[in-house]
Amino acid sequence: MISRLSAGLLAAALLVTGCGGNGQDTSTETAAAKVGLITKTETNPFFVKMKEGAQKAAQAEGMELMSAAGKFDGDNASQITAIENMVAAGVKGILITPSDTKAIVPAIKKARDAGVLVIALDTPTDPQDATDALFATDNLKAGELIGQYAKAAMAGKPAKIATLDLAPGVTVGQLRHDGFLKGFGISEGDPSIVCSQDTQGDQSKGQTAMENCLQKAPDINVVYTINEPAALGAHTALKAKGREKDVLVVSVDGGCTGVKAVQSGQIAATSQQYPLKMAESGVKAVSAFAKGGTKSSGYTDTGVTLITDKDATGVEAEDTAFGLANCWG
């Protein structure tokens, strides 16, 4: 994430590893074709689950998985290095969740020019067609679902909204933000938006952002967050002010920790996405390209579901039992 999107600021240094290979020259016909996976961080549970899905799919397809991750969310330099290393290692395809959706484009172009299939997972590049294909949550829809929920849950009460966003230059964050506004039925600059802060999807930064917003607008009653770590940080700040019971917090991701937070009432609702499906679909696409030259193209929606235990009129949702059965992390 954005997913999405994220709690990996303490990630380890760039890791590039080959999994399942035997170290032999891949130029031989008997060597397994290689597929690369580059995530934003190694520690975010979303990307941990994505890597698990990629490894499982690679084994099923008889491929060798190479994996890499940045030192932190937004580490474009490490992702560029990972692309170059993987192309040099002879991968047939690269799956990537871009940290900087614009700055990564030239490196992706070089890989594609070298004959490597490049597929974005979770986060589209800017422009989206800089990769051959995209397997991802419809992040605009994810935001729209929680926006619709928040609007219905407010039941006509005037809203004082804080948006705890991701960071500039990341499409997944912008899409979720725009979707929330659309679902709530307002536009950017609407007077009901009383505070907006970036959090980088981090829990501690989410707490600080919420504290700043409460200082600016103590009467906030709706909080949109880019992801569940940011939402949990916001809850901590609200609780410190005795406001945790009367402020509606909505989010996106659907990790197990986030769904449990919905179950406990810390978050009212979240939009759940499915990183395992993204990775499995991406590996299968690279396998098809390696075996027969078939190139995936365009956008494949890997699904999103609104999760809440507090139904809102006119908004379709599943409960936390469904969310826990399908969560990650």
Short description:
The protein has 329 residues and is of the alpha/beta class.
What is the element layout, followed by pairings?
Blueprint: E1 15-19, E2 34-39, H1 45-61, E3 64-69, H2 76-88, E4 93-96, H3 105-113, E5 117-121, E6 133-136, H4 139-154, E7 161-165, H5 171-184, E8 193-198, H6 203-216, E9 222-225, H7 228-240, E10 248-253, H8 256-264, E11 269-272, H9 275-292, E12 298-301, E13 305-307, H10 320-325
Parallel strand pairs: 2-3, 2-4, 4-5, 5-6, 6-12, 7-8, 7-9, 9-10, 10-11
Antiparallel strand pairs: 1-3, 11-13
Helix pairs in contact: 1-9, 4-5, 6-7
Would you write up a description of this structure?
- This protein is of the alpha/beta class and 329 residues long.
- It is built from ten helices and 13 strands.
- Helix 8 (256-264) links the parallel strand 10 and strand 11 (269-272).
- The two termini are 13 Å apart.
Summary keywords:
329 residues, alpha/beta, Rossmann fold, 2 domains, 10 helices, Sugar ABC transporter substrate-binding protein
Q: Give the strand order, joined by hyphens, for the main sheet.
A: 1-3-2-4-5-6-12
Largest sheet: 7 strands, mixed
Euclidean distance between termini CA atoms: 13 Å
Uncertain segments are: 1-29
CATH architecture of the largest domain: 3-Layer(aba) Sandwich
